[in-house]
Specification:
This is GNAT family N-acetyltransferase. Pfam families: Acetyltransf_3. Its EC number is 2.3.1.-. One of its GO terms (cellular component) is cytoplasm. Keywords: Acyltransferase, Transferase. By secondary structure, the chain is α+β, with helices and mostly antiparallel strands. The protein has a domain of 127 residues: Gcn5-related N-acetyltransferase (GNAT) (Aminopeptidase, 3-Layer(aba) Sandwich). It is globular, with a radius of gyration of 16 Å. The C terminus is likely disordered.
């Protein structure tokens, strides 16, 4: 499984994915800082990102995981403005699987951006990386996040009880999965953006 060092996906005429790079530290921090209350509801790392330097250190770890073939992460650009992140995480070469994680700024929600980005990333994972299985986990209370795998034809596998500690509360996570043979990107209908 070969993962290139820098990649970019053009999703449509306004949305693109840019592989996470040091140059994204400041705009990524700005997006996080503007959306702290929104993001911290379901993401445990938000309070640890207190400066662009904190984000830069995180980006370094992302690049190391990318070089090791264990992760492939991107910033989401909409009309040339950074509005979130998405990535393939916990890539297993042995078991040919990975997990998709994503977040979006509050103002960018409701436009089908994450669904379109997931569609592109899933197709890449199955066709280019030779993966067999992709999972998405979403907090039981996070209905927006759940709608993405539901729209894309994922199967609901079950609930991981008390699986993630966020803001001193254990959250239950719904696990969704899709297998390579179930994925037919040409048959996935996306909502209009």
């Amino acid at each position: 499984m070969e993962i290139l060092f820098f990649m970019e996906f053009i999703i449509n005429n306004t949305i693109k994915l840019e592989q996470t790079a040091p140059s994204h530290a400041q705009p990524l921090f700005a997006a996080i800082d503007r959306n702290r209350q929104h993001l911290r509801k379901f993401l445990s790392w938000v309070d640890y990102m207190q400066s662009a330097d904190d984000v830069a250190k995180y980006i370094q770890s992302c690049q190391s995981l990318n070089q090791a073939g264990e992760e492939l992460s991107f910033v989401i650009m909409n009309d040339q403005v950074l509005c979130g992140r998405i990535g393939l995480h916990l890539i297993s070469r042995q078991h040919k699987n990975a997990e998709i994680g994503y977040w979006l700024t509050e103002e960018a929600q409701g436009n089908g951006i994450v669904t379109a980005c997931c569609k592109e990333l899933i197709s890449y994972a199955f066709r280019q990386l030779g993966l067999h299985r992709i999972t998405i986990k979403a907090a039981v209370e996070n209905h927006r996040s759940q709608s993405v795998p539901q729209r894309l034809g994922f199967t609901t596998e079950g609930i991981l009880r008390g699986a993630e500690l966020v803001n001193n509360q254990f959250l239950d996570l719904i696990v969704y999965s899709i297998l390579k043979q179930e994925w037919a990107a040409e048959n996935v209908v996306l909502p209009s953006a």
